[in-house]
Amino acid sequence: YGSDKPDLRFDLKFIDVIDIFTKSNNEIFANIAKDTKKNRIKAIRVPKGDTIFSKRQMQRFEEFVRKFGAQGLAFIQVKKDGLKGPLCKFFSEEDLNELSKR
């Protein structure tokens, strides 16, 4: 949950996805994943998140996490016809399937 006193009403757990991002051909994320001291790449599954958050809000979230030392924030939408988003092009179909499972 990322906190020693998580608000369990929302059940938004951090999911470790570093092994998938290590194989990414996105240089920024791949380098973070390979850095043994700063290699933290987590995902949060937000059910119906694309109906809740606008692109502008997602950009504000990125600004927010940078204040705490994160080098970035990215999102992938889960649609009926598959995963969508700017990061999808950096992963193989197999890795996208694994992201979707997690």
Automatic annotation (TrEMBL):
Keywords: ATP-binding, Ligase, Nucleotide-binding, Protein biosynthesis. Its EC number is 6.1.1.12. The keyword Protein biosynthesis applies. One of its GO terms (cellular component) is cytoplasm. Gene3D superfamilies: GAD-like domain. Signal peptide: none annotated. Residues 34-101 form the GAD domain. One of its GO terms (molecular function) is ATP binding. GO terms for biological process: translation. Pfam families: GAD. This is Aspartate--tRNA ligase. It comes from Allotamlana fucoidanivorans.
